[in-house]
């Protein structure tokens, strides 16, 4: 089962059934609009669902959640530290090496982590 948007060329998904089609359509719509935002393209207004020859379903996405999920996507990195440093960190009660690395990288790059929240993006787009 294929799902397309007549107002968003290239926004296409394929699903196994109607339930999956709606789920996939929401994901495709959110990612497509996000790409348009990043590229600076205008977001079209929603069109009427009254068209002949096809079944239409209203698909809604809340863009702040889409933006946050893309921005906050984690990338797995493998790293090594000296054994003495691991022992010292454990003795100091440090358990979350990932957070420590994130803080260190942010400091090195001069990034204010507190300012980089999922909702520090533009206002939601209604599509």
SSE diagram, text form:
Elements: E1 2-4, E2 12-14, H1 18-39, H2 63-71, H3 83-91, H4 97-109
Antiparallel strand pairs: 1-2
Notes on the structure:
The chain is mainly alpha-helical. It has one domain. Helix content is 42%, strand content 5%. It is built from four helices and two strands; from the N terminus they run E-E-H-H-H-H. It has helices at 18-39, 63-71, 83-91, 97-109, and strands spanning 2-4, 12-14. It has a two-stranded antiparallel ribbon. Strand 1 (2-4) and strand 2 form a beta hairpin. The longest helix is centred in the N-terminal third of the chain and has 22 residues, at 18-39. The radius of gyration is 21 Å and the shape is elongated. The two termini are 22 Å apart.
Keywords:
single chain; 127 residues; mainly alpha; two-stranded antiparallel sheet; elongated
Outline type = elongated
Based on DSSP secondary structure assignment, what is the total number of beta strands?
A: 2
Low-confidence stretches: 118-127
Briefly note the structural class of the backbone.
mainly alpha
Percentage of residues in strands? under 5%
Strands side by side in the biggest sheet: 1-2
Helicity level: 40-55%
Mean pLDDT: 81
Note the total helix count: 4
> Main sheet?
2 strands, antiparallel
Q: Cα-atom Rg, whole angstroms?
A: 21 Å
Count of domains: 1
C-alpha termini separation: 22 Å
Secondary-structure element order, N to C: EEHHHH
């Amino acid at each position: 089962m294929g799902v397309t948007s007549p107002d968003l060329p290239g926004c296409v998904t394929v699903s196994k059934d109607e339930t999956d089609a709606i789920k996939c359509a929401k994901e495709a719509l959110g990612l497509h609009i996000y790409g348009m935002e990043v590229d600076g393209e205008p977001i079209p207004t929603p069109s009427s669902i009254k068209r002949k020859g096809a079944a239409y379903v209203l698909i809604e996405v809340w863009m702040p959640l889409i933006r946050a999920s893309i921005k906050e996507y984690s990338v797995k990195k493998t790293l090594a530290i000296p054994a003495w440093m691991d022992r010292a960190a454990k003795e100091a009660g440090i358990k979350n090496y990932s957070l420590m690395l994130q803080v260190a990288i942010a400091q090195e790059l001069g990034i204010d982590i507190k300012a980089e929240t999922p909702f520090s993006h533009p206002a939601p787009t209604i599509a």
